[in-house]
Amino acid sequence: MIEVGRLRALDAVASYGTVLAASAALHCTPSAVSQQIGKLERETGATLVEKDGRRIRLTEAGRVLAAHAATVLAALDAAEAALAAQRDTVTGRVTVAAFATACRGLLPYALHRLAADHPDLRTGLMEGDPHHALDLLQRGHVDLAVLDDWPEAALTWPPGIATTELGLDVADLVVPSGHRLASAAGPVRRDQLRGERWIAAPPGAICYEWLMRVLPGVEPDFLVGEFETQLTLVAAGLGVAMLPRLARPTLPAGVATVAVAPRPTRRVTVAWRAASAARPALRATVAALRESWARSYG
């Protein structure tokens, strides 16, 4: 019979393409992954991987077994969730992947509540952009993901992923206090924002993709990932930015916010593997995130 740990090693190699990346995902050494793959090849009597430059790639037999490995691991996930549901106790470990704003604005309170209400539950947190967090979730390396996306740059949910929406996070224009739009009587139209010097997230970030779609032709002069840094640059009079409200609980001196029409909003979503839905620990974590959202955005 094939040992499950060896299937996990093959699944990780199939997902990440190198033994080093697979070992990082599995929290073990590269040699341990290589040993598991070697034992699996001897068990099955088939060559499962072969070198491809600095990477390794699956053989045809490897691809066949990796597909079945994913099915087996999903079934084990569902079995563990069903057993946990029968006990109806919030125990074990839950690891959450979340975008940076959620790590700062939502997770501290949610994780604190979980620790206070469920002392037998161990929690972990990984920061990552929505695409990376969703990939970690789908591959089973985290239990739950907090994700953000915009209507103009929406995420696509893979098969087997369940979701619930926490709410919509409104974005406003952030300008220096002496800016021509700082004292606007009402929402400004997007076409009024042409010609500004823009401060934005770097290319590849979902917020950058969104800005490029709602204001085509904009070429940001400053590309920085941290919203706090964007606010500092705005306060220095270097440009304007479009920031979600969850990302700016307080504003520095010298900065004003201006509503924009139509109102830009991003969706904040919690996602988990559908096979794990019965786990009491997941339900408790989602409830804690809902409570944190209500505190931050209620």
UniProtKB/TrEMBL annotation:
Give start and end of each HTH lysR-type domain: 2-59
Q: Which UniProt keywords apply?
A: DNA-binding, Transcription, Transcription regulation
For this protein, the record's Pfam families field holds: HTH_1, LysR_substrate
Q: Read off the PROSITE patterns from this record.
A: HTH_LYSR
Against InterPro entries, the record matches this protein to: LysR_HTH_N, LysR_subst-bd, WH-like_DNA-bd_sf, WH_DNA-bd_sf
Q: Which family does it belong to?
A: Belongs to the LysR transcriptional regulatory family.
Return the protein name.
LysR family transcriptional regulator
